[in-house]
């Protein structure tokens, strides 16, 4: 999976482990909009804020025929704890081998307490019903982000 996603182009199908216990496949989402938000780590303050906001607005996303998925490098076990702790009603996808992260080019050098580390840059992608990439949001701030994405999806109509 060397190719990177490009705006206006079809996103290549990918399969990834999901907190539902079923494997997530992008192809199975055809006919729906998909909001794929990449976040650095389960149960950290920013990621928790972002997850809670998406969760609170989930019914509004569904009214727009949009499914929301959070994705990080955390394990399914870690995702399960995160989901239970905050009662998320959407699936979290586990990209431990970074295949999907690389496809969307979200692994960036970050500065953690003076050390340079490679990690997920908080980013969100909106894929339309025909599986074309129609929205790309990078370096996002967690707070208020779900509302921003919902507004963007409503503007697509």
Short description:
The chain has five helices and nine strands; from the N terminus they run E-E-E-H-H-E-H-E-H-E-E-E-E-H.
Note poorly predicted spans.
none
Order of helices and strands: EEEHHEHEHEEEEH
Query: Between the first and last Cα atoms, what is the distance in angstroms?
Result: 31 Å
Beta-strand proportion: 25-35%
Broad structural category? alpha+beta
Description:
The protein has 157 residues and is an alpha+beta fold. The protein is built from 5 helices and 9 strands. The chain has one domain: Glutaredoxin (3-Layer(aba) Sandwich), CATH 3.40.30. 29% of the residues lie in helices and 30% in strands. Strands 2-1-5-4-3-8-9 form a 7-stranded mixed sheet. A two-stranded antiparallel ribbon has the order 6-7. The termini are far apart.
Produce the secondary structure layout.
Elements: E1 15-18, E2 23-25, E3 33-38, H1 45-56, H2 58-63, E4 66-72, H3 76-86, E5 91-94, H4 99-103, E6 107-112, E7 115-120, E8 123-127, E9 133-138, H5 145-155
Parallel strand pairs: 3-4, 4-5
Antiparallel strand pairs: 1-2, 1-5, 3-8, 6-7, 8-9
What tags apply to this protein structure?
157 residues, alpha+beta, Glutaredoxin, 7-stranded mixed β-sheet, two-stranded antiparallel sheet, 5 helices, 9 strands, 29% helix, 30% strand
């Amino acid at each position: 999976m060397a190719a990177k996603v490009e705006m206006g182009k079809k996103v290549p199908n990918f399969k990834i482990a999901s907190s539902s216990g079923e494997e997530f496949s992008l192809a199975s989402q055809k006919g729906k909009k998909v909001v794929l938000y990449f976040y650095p780590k389960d149960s950290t303050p920013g990621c928790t804020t972002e997850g809670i906001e998406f969760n609170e607005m989930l019914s509004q996303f569904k009214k727009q025929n949009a499914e929301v998925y959070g994705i990080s490098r955390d394990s399914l076990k870690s995702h399960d704890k995160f989901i239970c702790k905050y009662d998320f009603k959407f699936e979290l996808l586990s990209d431990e081998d970074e295949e999907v992260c690389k496809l969307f080019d979200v692994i960036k050098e970050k500065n953690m307490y003076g050390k340079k580390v490679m990690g997920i840059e908080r980013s969100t992608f909106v894929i339309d019903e025909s599986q074309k990439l129609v929205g790309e949001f990078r370096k996002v701030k967690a707070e208020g982000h779900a509302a921003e994405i919902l507004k963007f999806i409503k503007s697509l109509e």
